[in-house]
Amino acid sequence: MAAPWRVLMLSPFGREVARGLLAPLGDAVDVDVPETRDRAGMLAALPEAEIVVGDYTGLLAVDAEAVAAARRLAFVQMPSVGTDSLDVAALTAAGVPVANTAGANARAVAEWAVGAAFALCRQLAWGDRGVRAGGWPQRALIARGTREIHAQRVGIVGYGAIGAEAARLFGALGCAVSYWSRRRRPEAAATYRELDDLLAVSDILVLAVPLTAETTGLLDDRRLALLPDRALLVNVARGGVVSDAAVLAALESGRLAGAALDVFEEEPPAADHPLRSREDVLLSPHAAGATGQSQLNIVSAVRDNVIAAVEGRDVTNVVNGLSPQVRRR
Fold first, then answer.
1. Which of 11, 93, 144, 181 is least enclosed by beta carbons within 10 angstroms?
2. Residue-wise over 183-212: b if at least 16 C-beta within 10 A, else e?
C-alpha cells in the first residue's frame, strides 16, 4: 500500500479543520499545519510536504527559499484567485504545478465592485457620516455631485472571471461597458479597447487584473491622467496595480472624484496612511470576496483539487502552464 500523501496546510484553518476538509481521503493523506504560524514554522514543515495549500493571508509566503526547502513538493493549491504570495517562477522551474480557485468568488467580488460604484455615485458613505454626526447634509450631498449609475461609462481592466461578471452586472444596469485585457475575449459582453483608449472613456474604472510582473504599476500617473475629469476608481485587483501615491495624487488633482479600495500596496495600510482620512475614498479590508457563499466555493475547489491530485486525476485551474497531472517525487 502506498504511503499517505503529506499535505501541508499553510492557511490559518487549524489542524482539525484542515484534516476535516480532506476527511474523504481517509488514510490516503496525512494532513498537517506548521507547529508555529511564522516563517520558521513553515520552513521546518516544508521538507516533507508533497502538497501545499497556500496561505490566503500572505503571511506565510512561499518564496524561492521555501521552494528550495520543499524537496518533495509536487503540487501547490492556493485557496484564492491571487497567487502573489507564491514565487510562481521558482515553482515552475522546480516542475511544481500551481492552481488557484479561479471563479470561486467572482460573483462576490463583482457584486462588491457594483455596490462600491453605487456608493461612490450617490455619496452614500459621506451622507451616512453626516447624518450620524447629527447633521442633515441634503444640499451639501447634492453639491458634492451625485450620479445615476446607468449614465456612466464603465471600463474594466482585466477580463477574467471577475471582470467578466462585473461587465455583465454593469451592463444589466444599462451602463456602456468596455474592457481591456492582455488578450481579446471574443465572447465578451463588452467592447474591447486598448488600455489608453479605455481610460479616456471610463467614468468608472474597475481594476480586476491579477498582479504580475507585467501589471505591477500598470496604472501610473500618466495613465490616470488619461481618465475623464471626476472619474471614479474601483480597485478589486491588488494594490500594486496602481500605487497608493498615484491614487492620492489623482484625487488631489481632481482627476478622480472618488475611489473605492478593497486592496492596498501594504495590508493593512499604516494607521496614519493619508487614504484613511480622505472623505472621497471608500475603504474596505480586502473583503470584496468574503461572502459565505464564496468561502464555500473556495473550500470546495481546494478540497476537490487536492482529492483529484491524490487520486491521480487532473487538477483544474493550473496557472503556471505545467501538466495538471500531479506526480509524486
1. 93
2. eeeeebebebbebeebbbbbbbbbbbbbbe
Length of the chain: 329
Point out the catalytic residue in the list 267, 276, 311, 329. 267
User: Tens digit of pLDDT per residue, the chain (329 long)?
Assistant: 689 999 999 999 888 888 998 999 999 999 999 999 999 999 999 999 999 999 998 899 999 999 999 999 999 999 998 898 999 999 999 999 999 999 999 999 999 999 999 999 999 999 999 999 999 999 999 999 999 999 999 999 999 999 999 999 999 999 999 999 999 999 999 999 999 999 999 999 999 998 888 999 999 999 999 999 999 999 999 999 999 999 999 999 999 999 999 999 999 999 999 999 999 999 999 999 999 999 999 999 999 999 999 999 999 999 999 999 999 99
Task: Decide if 329 is catalytic.
Answer: no
- Confirm whether 267 is a catalytic residue: yes
What span, in angstroms and rounded, lies between the C-alpha atoms of 221 and 32?
46
Prediction pTM value: 0.89
For the question of residue 238 being annotated catalytic, the response is yes
Number of CB atoms found within 10 A of residue 223's CB: 20
